[in-house]
Amino acid sequence: MFNLCLLPIVLFSQIFDPGATGYTFVKLGIGVRPVAMGNAFTALSDDANAVFWNPSGLGIVETYYVSGMAMKHLAYFNYYNLTSAIPLGKHGGLGFGLSYLTGTDIEYSERGERGDEFKNSDMLLNIGYGRSIGKQKIISFGGAIKIVRSQLYTYSAYGLLSDFGVILNPYKYIYIGSVIKNFGTPRKFIEKWEYPPLNFRQGLAFKFPLWENQFILGFDYSVYPDVKPTFSIGSEIRIRAPRFMESLGQDKFSGFSVMAGYQSGYESGAWSGFSFGFSLELIIARELYFDIAVLLLSYGYLGSSERIALGLNYVPTKARSRK
Which of 55, 160, 203, 238 could be bridged to 43 by S-S, CB 3.0 to 4.6 A? Predict the structure, then answer.
């Protein structure tokens, strides 16, 4: 039998409440900004993270972006992610994402003794497309295909899933988003059938201008077939560098963002479900920006998750003026 080193797998399953479904890996929130905002990102999805959260957002992304993220998940898992977005003008936008989760080596022994060490990992490949309608981009729609691979010891399994979403912008500062995630077929993993965790998310977001800055507020409602619905709330304030800093020779600092959020459903002690994030943007060259973002997400007495992300963002002048 497996010894106590299987604890990481048990914790991972408890946190994401697999219930009657499998594919627990795809329930893990991706990115720093969305998770720092409590996963209230369905109606926002206005950056490269849209390929994971709501692919319709790729239809409104106007900047070329590539980002890499590393995460320490609790004490047992390391998580890595690469994300990119490619705007195609009036033809919409493409998004690509690759995620890899690996666990601490697990020892196997039929008598509870030290035995062989084996690999525990999951991999996710996302390819998405989104497109908006009209010059004002009042309606955007999109979809994504996801290839999932899981491995434990000598066992492995593959799955093919898909997402479909829409974002409405009925008024300048208001966004409404809906997405159905994880359509797919069952897969057999370690002699047991797993079913995709079909997820419906509804979101509402507001983007308020504050002079040259911006305040963002988001709300999400999430439903899985086998667990109680959850809600999320998140906020972000974006502060641009004051113009007078250029006269002081500080022309490489573009601005920073502070994010905070909460997602219900964790119920594992004080502060569980709360998240906090910070990002800093620097100017590398004309229209080319570098950003660094960090996140802390609390799981209460189970521990916490820390993330750091580095990104390159090419922002055409026209897009920057609307950003």
Answer: 203
